[in-house]
Design a protein that fits this description.
Layout lengths: L1 H17 L8 H24 L5 H8 L2 H12 L6 H22 L8 H27 L5 H22 L9 H25 L5 H7 L3 H13 L5 H20 L3
Helix pairs in contact: 1-7, 1-8, 2-6, 2-7, 3-6, 3-10, 4-6, 4-9, 5-6, 5-11, 6-9
């Protein structure tokens, strides 16, 4: 919530100081912008929650399956053609996802790890949510400039997730100054720099291509998780990651971008 709230407030302040015109918006732009924001909020709500229950590597790998949800949604809702090699990439990524979830949840043992399995499911819901965020963004960026788009979407996401937190009956004010410094960095670097770069590129590349670029998180986050949290990768996690990275390579080489 704070990540989105801070990012939205900074954007609004910049626009006020620069006297940028965000309004008026057409009914379609307003509706789709709000919807995109809702899916962005849901992405963070489920994905960040997953980190409490499963490992960083598994969470990031599973949330990074979003390019394949983008392909599936584009196929069924937007009637885009899909090549055999993209079908192969989907199958390979699905196998990798199954390997990771089976390993994390100990599904083939007598003691199923329901906690890790729950975290994996949350990460997958996060992946599904961000897919719609990219698809809607690709449509809106055809007519909206980057500043107007991210201001509308981040503000909508901030409002929606703030309401969710208000009804969640949690203490949102117990964080230390150190905690808030990290939250502020989340708003500045991953949100205002990272996500805004993706949204800028949506005007020039297909949503599938943008989604694929997010998959670099897999390697980087796994390395950082080992350095800072001593989280190692098991053999089967490594195999699952290898399948998903193979699918990424296939998508990037043969995908329609």
């Amino acid at each position: 919530m704070y990540r989105l709230d801070i990012a939205a407030l900074i954007l609004l302040l910049i626009n006020i100081l620069k006297k940028n015109k965000i309004l008026p918006l057409s009914r379609k732009e307003l509706l789709l912008g709000f919807l995109s924001g809702v899916f962005l909020a849901l992405h963070f709500y489920f994905w960040i929650a997953s980190l409490k229950y499963t490992s960083i590597a598994s969470s990031v790998v599973l949330v990074s399956t979003n390019p394949f949800f983008v392909v599936l949604v584009s196929l069924f809702l937007m009637k885009e053609k899909i090549t055999f090699k993209m079908v192969l990439a989907l199958i390979v990524s699905f196998i990798g996802t199954i390997i990771i979830t089976v390993n994390d949840g100990n599904l083939f043992s007598s003691k199923i790890d329901k906690v890790a399995l729950f975290g994996d499911m949350l990460a997958l819901i996060g992946a599904f949510s961000v897919s719609f965020y990219f698809i809607i963004g690709a449509q809106l960026r055809k007519s909206m400039d980057t500043n107007k788009y991210i201001t509308v979407v981040y503000s909508s996401a901030a409002i929606f997730i703030t309401i969710m937190v208000m009804f969640a009956n949690v203490d949102a004010f117990h964080y230390s100054t150190r905690d808030f410094s990290f939250i502020f960095l989340l708003a500045i670097i991953p949100q205002l720099v990272g996500h805004s770069a993706f949204n800028w590129a949506l005007k020039y590349l297909k949503a599938t291509a943008i989604a694929i670029t997010t998959l670099g998180e897999i390697i980087g986050s796994s390395i950082l998780a080992y350095i800072f949290f001593a989280q190692t990768i098991s053999l089967w996690q490594f195999v699952g990651i290898a399948f998903i990275i193979s699918a990424i390579v296939i998508s990037f080489k043969y995908g329609k971008v």
